[in-house]
Structure formats: C-alpha cells, structure tokens
Amino acid sequence: MSQINRRLLHKDAPIGVFDSGVGGLTVAREIMRQIPNEKIIYFGDTARVPYGSKSRETVTRFSEQIVRFLRTFQVKTIVVACNTASAYALDVLEKDIDIPIIGVIKPGAKVAVEVTKNGRIGVIATDATIGSQMYHKYIKELNENVTIYGKACPLFVPLIEEGLLEDPVTDEIARRYLAELIDIDIDTLILGCTHYPLIRSALGRIIGEKVTLVNPAYETARELKGMLKDLDLLNDEKPGLGSNLYQFYVSDKAEKFVRFANSIIKYGILSAKTINIEEY
C-alpha cells in the first residue's frame, strides 16, 4: 500500500464498499452488524456485472473508476467486497491510493488455514477468482503444507440474483459442483464469492456438517474493525437520524437492486441512486 495520508482520515467519515453487483451486500451487512456506528457508501456495478468472466485489465479499469467515485465522498477506507476485483485489482489499487483499502480474499484465506484439521481446503468461486490462484497463493504463504482444491461455480451468481436462494434448481446445481470436493475429503470450504453466503444453508446441507464453511464476508468485516481500531478510526458515536447512515449507488437497475437489498438487509434500504460510473 502507498503511504497513508493521515490528514485525509476522519473517524466520522464513511466507509466505501464496492462490488460488481449485489454480492457485496453480504459484506456491507456484516459491517452493519459488527461496527454499527459506521456510515457506508455502497456502489454496485449492476450495469457491468458479472466481473467473474472478464479480463484482469477490464476488472482493474472498472475498479479504478469506482474508487475514484467513492473518494468523492471523502471515505476513510475502501472495502473491495468482490473476490474477482480483490484477485485482479487490489494490488494495483493499493499502490495508487493513500487511504486504507482491504479486499475479501486474505481474511477468508487466513481463517481457513486456522480452522482446517486435515489440511485439505476447498475454494468455490467464479472462474476469474479460481483462475487467479489468489486464494492458493495466500493460503500457501500461511501454510505451505495445506492442499487447496479450487472449483469454479459460475451458475451460482445468476441463480442468486434471480432470488432462487431456496430452490430445487440451486440445490441440484450445488450437488453437481460440490460432488468432487466431497469425494476428496476436504474439511474446510471457503465461500469465495460474496454472493455465496446467501445460499450458505444449501451448501452446508450438501457438503455435510463435517466441513467448516468459511464466510469471507464475515471475516472481512472483522478484519476491517481491527484495522480501523489500530488506526484509531472507529467512529465513537452513533450517527444521528437523518445523517444518511447508509447510501447506495448503482450503475443500472436501481429498483431491482433495492428489492434484492431489502430482502437480505433488514435496515430499510429505501432507495439507490443510479450514476454513470464511466464518467469517473
């Protein structure tokens, strides 16, 4: 990370969170739960979703545009709440930015290494995240004796975004994807896409109770809280009513985004504003 400019950082400033669409709402939800005094500016790139099938260069360009947009709100930190963007763009963003920024891969990898007993860790994610080998890289840095098994699950995101969270179709696709991971006796499974916690119950039923599911959304919020505490940036006071505690922005389909957001976040998301992200 480039040198942090402390003059830019204020305790009562918001946290910027972004994702390719709605998946990052699982991260935002955990931030709301774990550090409720914090204000959040969320951007979902709903016009250009999914990121998982796009090139590194494209995902990096999109991410740089979004960071420029979020910085117009004088955010004190940015959370890359997208595994693909964390895999492809985080290293570039870290070099270019002078405020703290974290992704979702390292926190999940760290916990997986801590909880595995037999050293066999599965990772399910998009094609891009699996192809990037970033979970493999971080896990091996922590424990070179662990074996990692990656499985791309590209159909999960569209199924989740269609609201098919508890549906026989989703269960059947999950059985097909997870079959080979069950056969090789993993004891830990990283949900390596921020959408996947929304079907955690189905994944848990199919993979079995002997396998620990690692939710990077939860772990990222926990790491964010620790980082803000270390930097003395935790907001000491609960923002008052009418202070725009949570603001949501999208690049397309705001009404659909709000419907989905309200189905998973119980904090009354009344609106999302559409912006032209290509201007940034």
How would you describe this structure to a colleague?
With 280 residues, this protein is α/β, with parallel strands linked by helices. It has two domains: 159 residues, Rossmann fold, CATH 3.40.50.1860; 112 residues, Rossmann fold. The protein is 43% helix and 15% strand. It contains twelve helices and ten strands. Strands 4-3-1-2-9-10 form a six-stranded parallel beta sheet, with helices on both faces. Strands 6-5-7-8 form a four-stranded parallel beta sheet, with helices on both faces. Helix 1 links the parallel strand 1 and strand 2. Helix 1 crosses helix 11, helix 5 crosses helix 7 and helix 9 crosses helix 10. The two termini are 22 Å apart. The relative contact order is 0.19.
Write a compact overview of the structure shown.
With 280 residues, this protein is of the alpha/beta class. It is built from 12 helices and 10 strands. The relative contact order is 0.19.
Give the overall form.
globular
The CATH topology assignment of the largest domain is Rossmann fold
Largest sheet: 6 strands, parallel
What value does the average pLDDT take? Answer: 93
Terminal residue distance? 22 Å
Record the strand order, biggest sheet.
4-3-1-2-9-10
**At CATH's second level, what is the architecture of the largest domain?**
3-Layer(aba) Sandwich
Topology as H/E string?
Answer: EHEHEHHEHEHHEHHEHEHEHE
Task: Decide which structural class fits the backbone.
Answer: alpha/beta
The count of helical stretches stands at 12
Q: What is the level 1 CATH name of the largest domain? A: Alpha Beta
Helix content: 40-55%
Name the poorly predicted regions: none
The share of residues in extended strands comes to 15-25%
Rg for CA atoms:
18 Å
Q: How many strands?
A: 10
Q: Any idea how many domains?
A: 2
